[in-house]
Amino acid sequence: MRQVRSRLGSLDWQVLAAIACIVALGVASIYSATAHQAGRPSPLYLKQLAWIGIGLVVLIAVALVDYHALARRAYVAYAAIVVLLVVVLAIGRVGMGAQRWISLGVIDVQPSELAKLVLIVALARYCADKTVKGGLGPSQLGPPLLLALVPIVLILKQPDLGTGLSLLAISLAMILLVGIRYQSIILLSLAGLMIFPFAWNVFWNSLRGYQRDRLLTFVNPSSDPLGSGYHVIQSKIAVGSGGFWGKGFLGSTQSQLKFLPEGHTDFIFAVFAEEWGFVGVLVLFALYGFVLYWIMETAYKSKDRLGAFLAVGVASMVVFSLVVNIGMTLGIMPVVGVPLLLMSYGGSSTLTVFAALGLVLNVRLRRFMLFY
Amino acid sequence: MTSSPHDDFKDLYDRITWGAIAMLALLGLLVLRAWYLQVVEGDTYRELAETNRVRVVSVLPQRGLIFDRHGRLLVNNTPGFTAYVVAEDAPSPLDPLIERLAGYLGLPEEDIRERIEGQRMARPFTPIPIKSHLTLKEVALIEAHRLDLPGVKIEVEAQRNYPLGTWASHLLGYVSEVSATQRSTTEFEGLPLGMQVGQYGAELAYDAILRGQPGEKGVEVDALGHERRVVSHIRPAQGDDLYLTIDADVQRAAEDALEGKAGVVVALDPTTGDVIAMVSHPDFDPNVLSGALTTSRWAELIADPGRPLNNRAIQGQYPPGSTFKIVVATAALERRIVTPRSETTCNGGKFFGNRVFRDWKAGGHGIVDLHRALVESCDVYFYELGDRVGVDAIAEFARAFGLGEPTGIALPSEKKGLIPSTEWKLASRREPWYPGETLSVAIGQGYVSVTPLQLATMIGTVATGGARHPPRYVREIRHRDGTVVVPETIPAEHLTVSAKTFAVLREALKGVVVEQHGTGGAARSSITQIAGKTGTAQVASLAASSRKGRPAHLEDHAWFVAFAPLDTPRIAVTVLVEHGGHGGSAAAPIAKQVIETYLGAQPQPSPSPVAARDRGSAGAPG
């Protein structure tokens, strides 16, 4: 035990405290956004606390099993998740216009969230073995891209634009970490340009009407203020009206009065920013920044490539969530359903981020070990 | 030589560092954006947030009341139920809701859909009025099916009530929701949706006075439009009350006298121009038009051949018939073409050109002077007179009496009638005036047409000896604080006609009623001295021989114009009975009844509008 405790350096405790702070702010915001929904059987913030409790267990569990052991089973897990995604398309529960959930009796799970983790581990395993001088050449891009594209296409088909893009971002980050030759970049760009019109067509046609509207209204939000542009406008009003000092806890008129829909999930940041103001936003970004620093430091100090890839994969997942989700509430990103990790209400995303952080902790715990 | 693991790690470290820097930059960008929204634009958004949650709801004012000259209530407001739909709370698609509502309210589905679709995008939270004046049965139906009717709500509102029903409906008018067309005019600009405004009659003409000022309520609402609390309240200002010049008793006497007939009664005070009574039949029930009017009922009213929506007193244009002889006689006397003693022989007709102009009396009147010609309404005498006076002199005096021009009464859509002249005929027909046409004009036929109100003004002018007061029907406007405003009166026109001429006319008009062969004997009164003139206006020019037994709709219009008392006139009356036959028999008794009611009695307490008001406000609508 002494050994284990010493491995958990003081930085890890600080990070756990930072994560606890973010999670606490998230629960407070969920409470605030849903407090007026009186008469619900069990309040959402309590449910979220329960998810966090389960998340902590998952975090510790993931941290304890050596990540090399996890990596060895990565391809099996990958195959399993692809099957699961196909199953979702076949029999999944339809919710909010998309087929994302599989019902496990008591709870519904979203396999696409799990797919993020599995893809991180699988790509890390693949990339860790590739030590190519000067980066990946054009011919070497095939396998990792294929690895990424299979789940991405399946998820886009649900359709879940947010998670699909999230997987794409994670994959690109990890491929970039391997290194990539200029020829590859040129080739990728050329190929991209050539297939872009076709791909765009396929992509655009695969979107549901409301998704197209969202992308269009991102270009011009005031074109439909009561329709698709409504969320963005209301969210900007909520954030902006928070001002420097904020309106105080439970003081968010916009979300209290329900002008801001989805205040407890995708637009949780707007609720937070309205109540805590720019000061609160600074604090929150400091906390997230600290957690990211911790993850990237883990990548830097990892004793092997696998550890570094795992950490960067997790970091890119968190950054994608921050940039897309917060960017959307601030009106600089299109509205695609991406939860704000550690804050948004939701079982699957909470478990995923805790598992991912457990992975980082896992790498960290074993960075001084001289044996695999 | 292959690269050492160390070299590879060096690359990896660099990339990790760059990655960390890129992440930091992205976060920095987000912070900058938050700073821009919250600090730079914070005040703007704070303001937006306020307006976002505070909705301004219009509070409709109570419309002013309308009274008669003795302060008896003619129009008031009673509480009634109105059904609203709040589009935002209504389900989408709307079809099941519309179907149910149509069933419960007895409205066509299309009407409801049109109302909702028209408003739901522009103002999704504003309640859209669907139907007012709900019956208790309709209210009960909606309340009982409340759960199946999301977004539907019933509000108690003040509704316009006309306790006397069809009584004076053309003068009073009716109200209904301000229309889109009205809202685009400056007069009705900025009025809130669902506000009742005048659509006809006094309600329209004095709408700005009656309607009051809408108030505003700032209501904090959530995104579903549920009201949380009222944060500000500007009370509406009630409309001002109108006191009309109408005498309810005289109006009722006139209404009763015209019951079942098509026609007009207009009674004026000739010394002021005050309208004492104004009846136009057929009429309509403004209570029906002011609320629960359905499209089909409206179409029915529009298509009604009796044209009940037409105010014949100001919009009907009729040949004045023999009443016009007053004008011709005046012109002849003033132009010194005849003296009262000038005689002509009437043997039943006058040859002119190649045609015969017949007298109404087959055998003729024998030797007649001007007095007898007016009293017995000898046509031949006036053919002769008209021919000698000429159409332009007749036109000049007709205009001086106020004929052929709108009287300027404050009622919408007044018609002007037509007084022909050589100039008019050249301009409008591009033809010269033929002398034979003057003969028709001289007995009030041919091109001549007037409105009953114009004729009332004319006989009033005779009564006063030359003072023509523009007619008006509003005596005063009373503000809620008790201050009284008397509308500015337009000064009377004074005719340049000698007193001698008026004396001749008055004597003749008295003779019409009291002399043995006078055509207006039916107006002889035991309580006052009535002077008058009959008129019979041809609807179709038929040969005299074929006049017996013709269908009712070709029967002549019967006129009687009168004033009383002879020496100090206080009332001037015009009666028109459409297709009533002879003025003497059909119209004169009505005029007598109206005059006797006005001069002979104190204001009747019952069954007066006061009693009707009690009835109206006590009962529930429907």
Tell me what you see in this structure.
Chain A is mainly alpha-helical. Chain A is built from 15 helices and 3 strands. Chain A has helices at residues 2-7, 10-34, 44-64, 67-72, 74-91, 111-129, 142-156, 161-178, 182-206, 209-219, 230-242, 253-256, 268-301, 305-329, 347-365; strands at residues 93-95, 98-104, 107-109. In chain A, a hairpin with a 2-residue loop joins strand 2 (98-104) and strand 3 (107-109). In chain A, helix 2 runs antiparallel to helix 3 and helix 14 runs antiparallel to helix 15. Chain B is of the alpha+beta class. In chain B, the strands form 7 sheets. In chain B, strands 2, 3, 4, 5, 10, 18 and 19 form a 7-stranded mixed β-sheet that branches. In chain B, strands 12-11-23-22-21 form a 5-stranded antiparallel β-sheet, with helices on both faces. In chain B, strands 1-8-9 form a 3-stranded antiparallel β-sheet. In chain B, a hairpin with a 2-residue loop joins strand 14 and strand 15 (355-358). Residues 1-5, 542-546 and 605-622 of chain B have low confidence and may be disordered. The chains are: A mainly alpha (372), B alpha+beta (622). Chains A and B meet through helix 8, helix 11, helix 12, helix 13 and helix 14 of A and helix 1 and helix 2 of B.
What is this entry, summarized?
The complex is a heterodimer of chains A (372) and B (622). Chain A has 372 residues and is mainly alpha-helical.
